């Protein structure tokens, strides 16, 4: 398998972007430039790491062996590498067929359905659930796993409909967030509500920590 995907990072277990414990893959590269994007480090197309699909598939297989319940693809803009993503999801599907239990694929894209061409649909069509739409900082939301109110969560398969039916309109009191530290740098997984990142900045400052290079600031 020669296909590759340029990625920003991966993490397992993630429990703030989809139901259960999940492998998450953040794709590198996005030209959509949403104002207020919290992942500006994923914008440059030449950043991150160019990874063979076979390597990502092995990572997914390992996560499944450890009990993963699903795979989340975010970014960056995953559909700006539609060929590589389609190849990865095809391989990941073979892994889940071997697993003998239901594992879902959740895809985040800044595009709306009407913006997808055949190539992008070849990738997006393999996801059980797709969250469509650019992040709009002027339209905050309390809906789970969405950054702004315009973003639509669309279950596309029987598994997606069964597993996500209760989440499409779900607005929990506190949105799930996960704080991880890698190589000494803190990073946040999830879709923070308005003010959360500002409060985090303040809290870290209160602990004597100065955040100098946050991905959520221009
Ligand atoms: S929110 Fe997503 S689609 Fe928008 S600029 Fe950031 S990475 Fe790109």
Helix content: 25-40%
> Roughly what is the average pLDDT, rounded to an integer?
93
Give the structural class. alpha/beta
Listed once per kind, the bound small molecules are: iron/sulfur cluster
N→C terminal distance = 38 Å
Shape: globular
How many domain units?
Answer: 1
Order of strands, widest sheet = 3-1-2-4-5-6-7
What is the radius of gyration? Answer: 17 Å
> β content, as a range?
15-25%
Give the count of helical stretches: 5
* Biggest pleated sheet: 7 strands, mixed
Unreliable sequence segments = none
Say what the CATH topology is: TIM Barrel
Describe the structure in your own words:
There is one protein chain. This protein is α/β, with parallel strands linked by helices. Helix content is about 25%, strand content about 25%. The chain has a single domain, classed as TIM Barrel. The protein contains five helices and nine strands. A seven-stranded mixed sheet has the order 3-1-2-4-5-6-7. A two-stranded antiparallel ribbon has the order 8-9. It starts with a strand and ends in a 12-residue tail after the last helix. The model has no long low-confidence stretch (mean pLDDT about 95). The structure holds iron/sulfur cluster. Iron/sulfur cluster binds near residues 37 and 77.
